[in-house]
Amino acid sequence: MADTAADRPVPPKRRTVARRDPRLMVLNWFRELTLVPVIILLMIVGAIVNPVFPTSSNLINVAQGGAALGMVVVAESLILLTGKFDISLQGTFGLAPLLGAWLIAPKASEGLGTEWSPIIGLLVVLLVGLAVGTFNGISVIKGNFNAFIFTLAMSILLTGLQLGWLGGQTVYHLPAAYIYLGANAWLGVPVAVWVTAAVFAVAALFLRYHRIGRAMYAIGGNLEAARAAGIKVDRIRIGVFMVASVLAAVGGLMQAGRVTAVTAGQGSDLIFGVFAAAVIGGISLDGGRGRMVGALTGVILLALVTNILTLSDISSTWIDAVDGAIILIALGIARVIGTDRA
Amino acid sequence: MITRSPVGEVEQVSKTFGETRALKDVSLMVHGGECHGLVGRNGAGKSTLVSVLTGLTRPDHGSIRLGGEAAPGLADRGAWLERVACVYQKSMVVPPLTVAENVFLNRPPGAKDSPLVNWRAMRERAHEVMLEWGFDLDVTRQAARLTVEQRQVVEIARALSIGARFMILDEPTASLEKAAVERLFERVRRLRDGGVGILYISHHLEEIYDICDRVSVLRDGALVLTGAVREIGQRDLVSAMIGSAPPQRVKEIEAVGRPAGLGQIKLETSHLVVRSGGGSVDDVSLQVRAGECLGLVGLDGSGSATVADAVVGLIKPLAGTVALDGRAVPPGKVDAVLSRGVGYVPQDRHARGFAPQLGVGENLTLAVLDRVARNPFGLVSFDDRDRIAETQVENLHIVASSLAQPVASLSGGNQQKVVVGRALAPDPSVLVVVNPTVGVDVAAKEALLDSIGRARDQGMAVLLVSDDFEDLRICTRLLVMVRGKVAREFSEPPWDRSSLIAAVEGLDG
For chain B, which terminus, N or C, has the lower number of CB atoms within 10 Å? Predict the structure, then answer.
């Protein structure tokens, strides 16, 4: 792209239509950043509620909590953009790291006792994600199953497998490499946060600059138009399901590393927060609209809310209710500001 | 037989939509026991007359009488339904419900004001209606499992059971097989003998001669002819539909002259058989050469648009092949067909033409994403993309505030230009175009046809499917399709309008 001006003669033709519309660009960014004032407000509220909140160690804690959620939000957003969704991402989030851990952990800590290299465990995590994503993608896209009911059933199945596989036990004493993502830090910031940030950035750039990313917007905006333009719509949509499940599996690995164990309940109820973050972040449930920047603000907002509620004096039995109320308020604010989110 | 009182009449009815005078002082009377044909070309005002007669549109002037009384107010839907019923081309049957439920939709028989449904009474009453009019249909069948013909019967039975004795049949044979048409005629005769007055709208003129007692012709919103069918010859009927006035504004069907030398065969279908709700195709073979524009002309449901869909792979044919440059294409694979140098303008721009929230530039380049992202990483070069988009913006005179403007916010004409631009952007060697100028203004129409004409002059092989005769001016050869088959070929422009219309409407020679 560096050779543009030098190599090509300047076209003498007068352009009848401008290439860009600055007004539209400002408007789009404004839409994406709707939640920023809300986030600032939450920071202020957090500082008032508890003096621990603004400390760097707490904020890093928030970031780490958001990292695993963020991976699944990226995954779900990609699927939502192409006009489908996947509820079973939370099942993959739990089952994939559990199977990987079980394979390599010692017998004493609920593992198989193979003492295999952690690399094999990590590969299994990715493979489980890939397999579930492929199965979901082919069933929903080629098999024409309704995405809601099919991935709901898959979610129940995966969560059930996760519980039944080890009779509800937790796998612990995991090798260092296996929990590296969640347990280590670079420059004082957890590796999981770096990785999630990178995944957000790559996804955002891919959607904006890659031809498949642009094709995804066309597919979500009007599937039949994309098909009639010769875009390989089925292949792309199945591919998105596969990538998303792998991302969810990696997110589960982050969660496992953070608590240095895989519980039988990891991932349950996660998907509601995922949908909430994506939608208040401006990802349309109808497909074709929304950007990663917005989804990121949704993740930050949700992670902050969870943290502030934990730090506050609110009884733990009431936290869910307040959480739900705040999500509703965030949706309301987004609507008032004039974006059609939900 | 037609001595009974009129069941439906309009007197001096006029209706204007914006600039268009859809109906001009139309007076028409349908008697009980009469089958009255109504014919006219697209846009002649038939639909407006139907919606005035069924109480969906209020005329600007004039009066409507039903069953000898002044028509009820527009708000009183129930009163309209008791007096007049229209069986539309699109089925108004609710698929998951049974035949009996569909017949008594929203007014279950049984105790008055009872909120409960008396299923047995409903089935019995529905069965009675069927028996009374000689319809052979199981009332417990689920409507989703009925054929098009049977759904029509359900709609007719519904209207009869409400008590309507004036029935409008709007192109009832458009998607019926030949045997089904015969059975429909039988039913229409029975209705007629039972004292029902029928307004029979059809594009197939031979049906008018088969079934109607009288016929009226609408042209440009005016009633130009009414009379007994046996006194009006086919020639007179066709010329009443066309009129003698010179075509308005757009140069209609002007000779393009045969191109000096035709290129080789680019597109070929052989013995194509396609089953489709939008009009099936029965053994169609055609060839399009480079530099040629083949017009495929036919009414809605004639299968002409289905041929285009099968060529680009949107529908998988039951039999037959499509070949590009002499090599067969895999059936039912749009991306494979388009990647072999085919541009495609789909019939319905909203359903298939564009992604509404994306910008003009992106929509124009949807079919060339691989070409503007040629680097090893597949990254889109915005500069390449914008240059391709700009070429099409200039070619088609697209009016937009910027390339980033969402296509949803453009006018219909400019949206259609984007769809055509999208098809032309890859510089295809074959262009498949379906109804490219539907619902666009005159200037946009000119720009669209000119750009397709230029593409043809540059050696593109164009297959143009259209029922708008103005579109055919850019064609070098025409095939007329009737009921899924190629009925006639016109190879020497300029086209003779009346023989073309006669062929399209299913009349011989």
Answer: C
Q: What are phi and psi of B140, to 5 degrees?
A: -95, 0
Cα nearest neighbour of B336 on chain A: A230
CB-side exposure of B83: number of CA atoms within 13 Å? 24
Q: Where are the domains of chain B?
A: 6-93+146-242, 247-341+430-509, 352-427
Sign of CA dihedral B261, B266, B270, B272: negative
Which is nearest to A47 in space by CA: A227, A314, A304?
A304
In this predicted structure, what is the pLDDT of residue A11?
46
Fold of B6-93+146-242: Rossmann fold (3.40.50)
pLDDT in tens, B227-249: 999 999 888 888 888 776 544 43
State mean pLDDT over B415-435: 94
Mean pLDDT for A166-184 is: 89
State the Cα–Cα distance between residues B257 and A284, nearest whole angstrom: 52
Cβ distance B335 to A230 less than 8 Å, yes or no, reads yes
CB-closest option in B354, B356, B380 to A211: B380
**A230 and B377: CB-CB below 8 Å?**
no
**Dihedral of CA A109/A111/A116/A121: which sign?**
negative
Q: Tell me what ipTM this predicted complex has.
A: 0.80
Could you tell me which residues of chain B have a Cβ less than 8 Å from any Cβ in chain A? 312, 314, 334-335, 337-339, 344, 346, 351-358, 360-363, 366-367, 369-370, 372-373, 377-381, 383, 386, 390, 393-394, 398, 400-405, 422
The residue with tokens 């639909």 is: B47
